[in-house]
Amino acid sequence: MQGGRKVRPYQGKACKAMIASLIRSVVHEITSAFNPGEWIALVSKLKQTNRHMLLVTLRNLLPQLLLYYVALSPFVAAPLYNMMLFHPTMTGPFGAHKIIGTKIENVFFNSTNGVQLHGWYLQAANSKHSKHVVLVSHGNGGNLTNRIPLIAMLLRDGVSVFTYDYQGYGRSAGSPSVEKMCEDGDAAFDWLISEKGYADHDVVVFGESLGTGVACQIAARRHVAGIILQSPYTSIVDLARQKILWLRLYPAALFPQQQLNNAQILSQPHAPLLLVHGMKDRLIPFSHSEEIYHLAVPPKTFIQLPDAGHNDMYDINFDQYNSAVRQFLTALPEPHLNSAR
Description:
This protein has 341 residues and is of the alpha/beta class. The protein is built from 11 helices and 12 strands.
């Protein structure tokens, strides 16, 4: 019962049908403006008309195109593009106590904008011999629990690890965006300095996929020990334009303030750099790492995994990947241990 009147089944069905029809209409209106078939048909019709009719047609078409241009701009449609970019999950083995025998310390700390974040800190058993800690900024999918194979690899290589979830991922509060993600990375770095007594030059920043932009942002502002980038992109703007063709119509100024321009950052003096990329990567093309390596100033190392894609490095070419990371970490100068830790 609703308001004293019984709602008949056919009324509910009619309402659902009307909503579905409206959604289909909106989707059609948005997509048709970018449908090549629509433009071919339009050009064909324009060729058959006189100049006056052409001007009238364009005059009627321009307001609609302008509306779509504004509505789909990165600035106005940021929530839409955030939904396309970020794929967080809130479930996983968060109750785990150890990884390959190393105790997990659950950490809660605030991002620079005050939102509470969650992370895992693991101090390597042989940390008396290696003073470095690797700060892991993960990719756009899942959460920190999906990075257990990476954490295990780094622990076996003799370094401590701190990984965290961006806002909206796992046990971290809030919702993600490019700007917030960078703020989260800064807060994670600051936590290592303030709570664990590390110095800037004790920290190796590790970026995975989307997180490579965060790692480079940190490295640009801090004197870190090293930079490891797994499947990086030249810039988030370049990648977005490559994936979504209509974004090529917008100037860079309309994209997020933090444009995560890895190539630009690494073209300036930086800490030792290791690039690792699968040559069969279909998500972030291998060519992005090729361009970064070409533009980056030394010291730099580029490891090309011939059979690996984007998410299968721990199953394919793993020995080559692990060996490269271990050699890179071993070659880093040992910092002095801060007595506060």
